[in-house]
Amino acid sequence: MANASTLDNRRFLVGAAIGTGMTAKAAAQGGADFLLALNAGRLRVQGGPSISCMLPLADNNRAVMSFSRAEILTRVALPVYFGACVFDPDCDLERLVQQVAEAGFQGICNFPTVVHFDGAMRARLERNGVGLAREVRLLQLARQVGLKTCGYVRELGEALAMADAGVDMLCINYGWNAGGVSGVPSRFSLDEAAEHARVICEAVRARHPAVRCTVEGGPITTPDEAKKVAQVSGANGYIGGSTIDRIPLEAAVAETTSAYKAVAQLQHRLHNLKSEWLGDGHEFGLIGRSAAITEVVKMIRKVAQSDISVLVTGENGTGKELAARAIHLSSPRRHQRLVAVNCAAIPRELLESELFGHEAGAFTGAHKARIGRFEQAHGTSLMLDEIGDLELALQAKLLRVLEDGSFERLGSNTPRHSDARLICATNRSLHAMVAEGGFREDLLYRLNSVEIRLPPLRERIEDIPLLVRHLLPRIADEVNPRVREMDASAYRVLMQHPWPGNVRELRNVLERAVVMCDDVVVTVDDLPLLDSRMPPPPSPRPGTGHAASAVAMPESEREWILDALRRNRFRRQATAVELGLSRKTLYNKMRRYGLL
């Protein structure tokens, strides 16, 4: 511990009136010269105002002794003053002073203090012997056992009484701090406090030149304000309580919270911008703003909130697994992992065990029991991909699970239960399989409570630019970081291709193009040879009663033309040449899309 006498060699002292070890260490790191362990500081960190230390909430001296010995005295190398309360007439001052010295404190101060009272309350305390005279007596006894003393005062008479008693330092206190959330309005202005302190400092030094005078509280809430008061008054230092812990903490917490809130707001804004740019399903990887994909995302959000079984249909490469995962991630079960099984990827003889589990000895090689995917998915979602590949015997067992949630492991007659939410996917027509006898009609009706059909890419050609802008940077980061964008000629070729492999095929084409690209822009020369013949319109799906509607792509074509116009500084001839259009055709399209 530093010796309190070192304070005499300081030009301007800074004291920290604190109530926790964390604040003590922070104040020491910041350069404080001494600490005052006060119950007011303890109450502040508990969420109460400093003024509550004046109330009989607890034994002040016992509380200060307890937290100081546990958190402060052994953790900082600074002089620590004990904040002593003498309002209790039964308090033995000599014994208290001795306990403070034995505990390892270097000094003592009179806080809570009677100087915070005035009027009738102050007069009654003084008449009953627990006023300023008792506080002066405390500090006199402290000096006799070698403790340094700091006397809290407000008025000139109080300051002179303390100085005459031989205190080492005065703290001219202007009341509870005015700043922060729980500050108390001060009856002193900053100029009034400075002038008031000047009068006291000059009077005390005239009689006791060695006594150091510090200021604290009231209107002094910032370092600049402390500097101003010290310059006018000639004070030797400043003691901060709320201004060192509560007010900076309030400001820091508010600022930090606001910053985190800004991050959340920024993320929300970014999400909205991505939705505007890539479509509402972008968070699930379902990129597009076409009516077809927008309807899919809308259905996903609706069905996700219930536990109803869902059948996701669509050609290979349309994103059926993405849709299934989107249903799970939008559901109340999203906090648990989705369990997924590809029925086409597991040998038929092992699929029953995979789904329902088996007991030890159920078949050759079954050396120990194994739980199946339905048990794993208890409480979460189970995705069965390529459900059309499930053989009829397993279809019957699956139907039972859908009806009452029960099943048995292979080699067992003990019923087990699972509340897994079932999401199935297939690229086959289950209606056609029912007609051919390859799929149970009753199972289809149970699975088909809600069907979500993923449209093939040829039915949403207008989403190709969005998909390219989403996929291209990610692919480039992996295989060719130089690539930045794709030119209009390449876009035109992509939008003329029928995409039998759908989005998966598009990604493969982009990967090849990025690898082959020698520049920063992918051109048509970098693309593989693509067939531009469009397939015939799809036949009506069972139960729909209508054919797929024709695909319109005005918005994408508008963006395609606008990008080319910008690159050519809106020179129509150059733009027409780049796009492979006649000037008249370009003009008509510009007029159609409002680009004139």
From TrEMBL:
InterPro entries: AAA+_ATPase, AAA_lid_NorR, Aldolase_TIM, Homeodomain-like_sf, HTH_Fis, P-loop_NTPase, Pyrv/PenolPyrv_kinase-like_dom, Sigma_54_int. This is Sigma 54-interacting transcriptional regulator. Pfam families: AAA_lid_14 (PF25601), HTH_8 (PF02954), PEP_hydrolase (PF09370), Sigma54_activat (PF00158). Residues 531-550 are annotated as: Disordered. Residues 286-515 form the Sigma-54 factor interaction domain. Keywords: ATP-binding, Nucleotide-binding, Transcription, Transcription regulation. SMART domains: AAA.
